[in-house]
Amino acid sequence: AREAVKRGVSGILVSNHGARQLDGVPATIDVLSEVIEAVEGKVEVFLDGGVRKGTDVLKALALGAKAVFIGRPVLWGLAYQGEEGVREVLQILMEELKLAMALAGCRSTNEIDKSVVRRDTFAKM
Description:
By secondary structure, this protein is mostly helical. It has four helices and three strands; from the N terminus they run H-E-H-E-H-E-H. Strands 1-2-3 form a three-stranded parallel β-sheet, with helices on one face. Helix 2 links the parallel strand 1 and strand 2 (44-48).
């Protein structure tokens, strides 16, 4: 990410396309913070991969992503009911995000920050 910024990119898309062929490749959400830190606010960072629920969107935004890209859920909606299925999937994601934001005490996406996510696991306790 640092090298990409040095070379003048306009933004970074954090994606692990093709990673399903490699064992042990981290999920995009797990490396997002590292990329955000590396670019030092010089370019926008987007997340692609692993977004299935509104809470996934909330986590990505909280960790610093400007926006998320949605792949498989859109394809599932398309396969289910064409264009209307895609609309339905996007509406569900929006409603889930709104609920997650409300439960986190955020009235707008501008209020989403790192405080709404916790990276500790119960296994460490």
